[in-house]
Design goal:
Elements lengths: L2 H13 L2 H8 L3 H15 L4 E3 L4 E3 L1 H26 L6 E8 L3 H5 L2 H8 L3 E8 L1 H9 L5 E5 L9 E9 L1 E6 L19 E5 L3 H13 L7 E4 L5 H7 L2 E6 L11 E5 L7 E8 L6 H10 L1
Parallel strand pairs: 3-4, 3-5, 8-9, 8-10
Antiparallel strand pairs: 1-2, 5-12, 6-12, 7-10, 7-11
Helix pairs in contact: 1-2, 1-3, 1-4, 6-10
Length: about 290
């Protein structure tokens, strides 16, 4: 039984389905399915109940999940102990990234951290904002990227700002506003905005930014997540708000980013971590990320 297969099994449960787990692990979904089948054959029990959209742990899967988590904790302690004999700083650091803005959020901070602390195992997880928040809440990651907002009952979070900038409107290339070089808030007064059903954190960040300048979106439609935004924009004459300079990759020519010109309108993305996280690698990484 391979350690990596155990990690993958935990990710499937934590992410809720195979496709999100495969994306967070940076691997192909068929390989992930094959590894689970190998675990099930080796253990002689069915671990997951699957359908097209989600997976659920069987009773045996619940036991396996708890056992695998304990095995992985012990394994990481063991590897840290053995590595310490080689000298130098050793440990683990788990980073939650927004998969569509990794370079903008981190620059080369992860590469520089690994070069400076080669004995520290840097584990990367690809998420959407709501998944970053949940992973921090459940202590599955040490540091994650979040849009900055006044989240309820989240006083356990600490922040280090990555960048602050204005907002842009993202529209389809055939939208009446697409030819404009810039927009005012008055231009958006009668437009229908797109919000993410699965991401209340980005929604809250943008709503608070608009509220600070005395504006609110009066007409909105909901789409599932960031991956379904382009389809929604192309299907209807809608507007999706994004931080300036961070367009959705892969839709050049189909979607147009238009800066919103409004004094005081800005949003902030931050590195977030738990106040009670005592992993000594966290402040070291934050210091490098600041440079």
């Amino acid at each position: 039984m391979r350690i990596e297969h155990m990690r993958e099994f935990l990710a499937i449960h934590d992410e809720g389905n195979f496709s999100r787990a495969a994306r967070s692990l940076f691997m192909a979904q068929p390989a992930l399915s094959r590894h689970v089948q190998e675990l099930e054959r080796e253990l002689g029990v069915k671990l997951l109940d699957r359908d097209k959209h989600s997976v659920r742990l069987t009773e045996a899967g619940e036991r396996a999940y708890k056992g695998f988590r304990q095995i992985l904790r012990n394994y990481e302690r063991l590897t840290d102990d053995i590595a310490s004999y080689k000298g130098g700083l050793v440990g683990n650091l788990r980073i939650g990234m927004l998969y569509y803005t990794i370079r903008q959020d981190f620059g080369d901070a992860m590469e520089r951290f690994s070069a400076e602390y080669p004995g520290v195992r840097l584990r990367r997880f690809s998420y959407q904002p709501q998944e970053v928040f949940q992973a921090l809440a459940e202590e599955r990651i040490d540091v994650g990227v979040l849009p900055r907002a006044n989240y309820p009952e989240a006083d356990w979070l600490c922040y280090q700002d990555v960048h602050t900038g204005g907002l842009s409107a993202l529209v389809s290339a055939d939208h009446p506003l697409a030819s404009r070089g810039g927009l005012t808030l008055d231009d958006l007064a009668d437009e229908t905005g797109v919000l993410l059903r699965d991401d209340p954190y980005s929604n809250r960040c943008y709503a608070e930014a608009l509220e600070r300048v005395g504006f609110a979106q009066h007409s909105v439609v909901y789409t599932d997540n960031i991956d379904t935004v382009p389809l929604e924009l192309k299907r209807g004459r809608f507007v999706y708000l994004i931080p300036q300079g961070l367009p959705l990759p892969g839709f050049e020519g189909e979607l147009v980013e238009i800066p919103i010109r409004a004094e005081g309108l800005s949003v902030t993305k931050s590195l977030a971590w738990r106040a009670d996280n005592d992993n000594p690698m966290v402040p070291l990484f934050l210091e490098i990320a600041k440079r």
